[in-house]
Design brief:
Length: about 120
């Protein structure tokens, strides 16, 4: 079901993009692309008919996009149990402490670091 609505949303987004790009801006849009008078763009997509059709298609496609996005948001949140993030952090088990080896060392190695703070960069003398 989720995949079906997601496919519809993507197709609607593509259709909405095409419809918006076809609309006439300040320069005339697709209706001005035909060149001379009497062409197909002037008769079919030019003037008031193109404006009302493309405007209506934009509104319908935009409304469908919003509704599909809302449906997908609801479907994606239903699979999870609502709860607080803080509660989920406290319910996890804490990490086990490192084992203490006989002889005072912790973890692997067990050797004490050399006296004098060795292990850094040479002092350059």
């Amino acid at each position: 079901m989720y995949g079906f609505f997601l496919t519809l949303l993507v197709l609607d987004a593509l259709f909405l993009s095409v419809v918006v790009l076809l609309q006439a801006g300040k320069g005339g849009g697709l209706a001005a692309m035909g060149g001379g008078g009497g062409t197909m763009t002037e008769g079919v997509l030019g003037g008031r008919q193109a404006t009302s059709f493309l405007t209506r298609a934009t509104w319908v496609s935009g409304a469908a996009f919003m509704i599909l996005a809302l449906i997908l948001a609801i479907l994606s949140s239903r699979g999870q149990e609502p709860g607080s993030i803080l509660q989920s952090e406290f319910q996890t088990a804490p990490a086990a402490p490192a084992p203490v080896l006989p002889g005072g060392g912790e973890g692997a190695g067990g050797a004490a670091p050399p006296a004098g703070g060795g292990g850094g960069a040479p002092d350059g003398n």
